Amino acid sequence: MALKTLVKVGKISNLSDARYCAGMSVDMLGFSVINGRENYVSPELFKEMRGWFTGPSIVAEIYGIEKHEDLAAIFQAYLPDLVEGSFSDIKKLHSAFASYILSTTYEEVKAHEDELGIYRTQIAYLIIPESTPMDQIETLSREYKLLLRIDSMNPEDSKLHNTHIKGIALQGSSEDKPGLKNYDALASVLEKLEAED
Fold first, then answer.
1. What distance in Å separates the CA atoms of residue 157 and residue 176, rounded to the nearest whole number?
2. Measured on CA atoms in the order 122, 127, 132, 135, is the torsion positive or negative?
3. How many whole angstroms separate alpha carbon 186 and alpha carbon 7?
4. pLDDT of residue 196
5. Considering the entire predicted model, what is its pTM?
6. What is the spatial distance between Cα 42 and Cα 8, in angstroms, rounded to a whole number?
7. Distance between CA atoms of 69 and 126, rounded to whole angstroms?
8. Residue by residue, what is the 3-state secondary structure of the chain?
9. Cβ-proximal residues to 87 (8 Å cutoff; 6+ apart), any chain
10. Which domains are present in the chain?
11. Predicted local distance difference test score (pLDDT) of residue 193
């Protein structure tokens, strides 16, 4: 099975979500790697989960990172393919080796164009809100690959298949109990994106 567009699912905090997403051919799985943040996944838990799925790229979600020295330990523990954070998080890192996913808005990009230029070659994707107007999406897509953050259960098909969007960003959720999970929110979007054989 394949999906019609690139999909990143973040805030993965349990093996059920990780395996479900891998089975649905999701491209990237994001894990919160900053201790004390919501949905934090410890290196030990991540290592335990990592042995049970294959396929997706790993995204280290660094929202709330304190200092750039913390990045080395994150890379050692999680071996991420990409690092995701806000503009203020990424400014703290000063790493020439990381590939970034920047969660932002059109307004923030325009307000910080000069500063963002420093990171331009390292920014793999921008995640922007589902509510971003079409003219702003078109403008940003000229310089960046865009992931549209989908917050609704039933997004418009036109948003899922927008030619200016490289893919979409969804979020996992907590388990009711280990192994007991409701996938309605993820399934409602992913099933719309299943490619026909």
1. 30
2. positive
3. 11
4. 59
5. 0.92
6. 20
7. 24
8. CCECCEEEEECCCCHHHHHHHHHCCCCEEEEECCCCCCCECCHHHHHHHHCCCCCCEEEEECCCCCCCCHHHHHHHHHCCCEEEECHHHHHCCCCCCCCEEEECCHHHHHHCHHHHHCCHHHEEEEEEECCCCHHHHHHHHCCCCEEEECCCCCCCHHHHCCCCCCEEEEECCCCCECCECCCHHHHHHHHHHECCC
9. 102, 104, 108, 112, 115, 116
10. 6-193 (3.20.20.70)
11. 85
Of 29, 122, 34, 141, nearest in space to 80 by CA: 29
Return per-residue pLDDT of the chain as tens, 197 residues: 578 899 999 999 999 999 999 999 999 999 999 999 999 999 999 999 999 999 999 999 999 999 888 999 999 999 999 999 999 998 888 777 789 999 999 999 999 999 888 888 999 999 999 999 999 999 999 999 999 999 877 777 777 778 899 999 999 887 766 655 667 778 888 888 886 55
